[in-house]
Amino acid sequence: xxxxxxxxxxxxxxxxxxxxxxxxxxxxxxxxxxxxxxxxxxxxxxxxxxxxxxxxxxxxxxxxxxxxxxxxxxxxxxxxxxxxxxxxxxxxxxxxxxxxxxxxxxxxxxxxxxxxxxxxxxxxxxxxxxxxxxxxxxxxxxxxxxxxxxxxxxxxxxxxxxxxxxxxxxxxxxxxxxxxxxxxxxxxxxxxxxxx
Length: 196
What we know:
The chain is mostly helical. It has helices at 2-11, 18-29, 38-47, 52-76, 78-88, 92-101, 104-117, 122-131, 136-161, 166-195. Helix 7 packs parallel to helix 9. It is globular and about 45 Å long. The relative contact order is 0.13.
């Protein structure tokens, strides 16, 4: 199923309506969709390098709005909508583990790491933020910082290095972002341990 979703998402990059599709994919990725918006963003940026910053802006705004939708799902419709979505993607166990072991500061850290590196999946954290009643404005600021950083970094890499960086982006960028987030999580845990 994931492969067919991935292939379908890539096919959208060649359409005249690709910018609208980028907004749709970025929006739904943050709350219910499995394929990251990067899959569409990267080929679009290669096809139209003059629009790379515009695409980054569209993806950031749509992703943040999708995160807000995920927050509302968690806040108002967890049992009826969000829980079945998490079950469908096999993310309910991860959600339950997180929800039992986090506080506000940990959720904010997870918002940043999931927004920047999909660690853990962003839809899990946006829904969790609503369930935990994280302040909506704090949630939005965290989402803007994390998602904006990811898409602006992609835009900068693509504009500066062009096609030569394609393999790096497709194979290594997420791994490096995850490693950076793992270091941030480790530092946070170490700080919490020392502080207590």
